[in-house]
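Thread: Modeling a multi-component assembly for a lab meeting

Hi all, long-time lurker, first post. My supervisor asked me to bring a structural picture of a complex we are working on to next week's group meeting, and I have zero experience with this. I have the sequence lines for every component (390 residues in total). Could someone generate the structure of the whole assembly? Inputs are pasted exactly as I received them:
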Amino acid sequence: MLSPEGNTALSSDPRWGIFRAGAGEPLPSLYVHVPFCPFRCAYCDFDFTTRTASVDAYLAALAVEVRAVGGMLHPETLFFGGGTPSLLSEGAFARLADTLRAEISWDRVAEWSIEVNPETVTPEKACAWKGLGVTRVSLGAQTFSDERLAALGRRARAADALGAWEILRAAGFKNLNVDLIYGIPGTGVSEWREDLDAALALGPDHVSVYALTVEEKTPLGIHVRRGETIPVSEELSAALYQEAVERLSGGGLLRYEVSNFARPGEECRHNLNTWHGGEYLGCGASAASFVGPMRGANVRGEGLYRKAIAQKRSAFRSERTLDSAERLRERVVLGLRLAEGVPEGDVQAAGLEGDVERLIADGFLTVARGRVAPTDRGFHFADTISAACV
Ligand code: SF4
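Re: Modeling a multi-component assembly
Sure thing. I ran the full set together rather than chain by chain. Output:
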């Protein structure tokens, strides 16, 4: 494992202090944020920019951060999210991959996921990703209707998603995910069923479904505020979610987390580590880290991120330090998002028996074989469970 001592840049990164103070176990997961997008989706509140002229400067800053903190890692999983990681050219992606391989112990990496948008997938890029060691690709299809894609402000059309899927399979990717969004204003169960069926027709290994959330400062949020767009009702949203559960399970994709469905054995290991309360390191603008008892994130905005690195400052800001009781409680709350649930003993150790008993009485949770897990109702109201347990 590399040490930071030879690297004076960012040596004050608070993650090192807490890492050294802990058991010194290297972290098993790395998230890398690639914040560039070719356009803005109407609903997006993520940390992204369309100023793609900064890509090279950003990747140079990212390399500095990876050199400074990569020694904390011995990763089993990598996840490149965004933004649109697939916007990077083959050359830029290869440079980033080379930096990671040079700075991080690589022998345990078993899963390397990247998020891609359909219109940016080419045969050349897909082959390059495969050749560099990417094992899992998540395709942001969102819907297979051109009309609904236009309503979301997406640039890709349904044909782009189908084409990208073919390219990815032809490049040899076995583990592919489709991201879908439900609850697009003006649509109901029949439109959603079409999207689910179109996704299942691809033969995916994993499907993620997300309710469209209306964020205030997005173009969608502004339309809703002006009354030009009416969000779907809670009741319809619940019916759409239930439709996804039934249709996807009928297609062999089992719900293992609130929003995630997979063929057995194809669950996303990287995200499972997070839901199991495991540690991870995040590099790049706004990337979150959980090191020892400390949670925090890098500054949001690729410009501010580059500025911090250029000034040899860490971009990381600590947000909370958890004591052991808080950490256990958090692990239980995260675990209650999973179909496998959590052991009853952990619920007791976390002092959450009273909250959990009420949630069982209200039909949100159930107990089986010594584990507490969400019911169908609990999956749909996962936020209610989290709020009740804090
Ligand atoms: S592609 Fe993703 S990150 Fe980029 S604008 Fe659209 S939703 Fe946001």
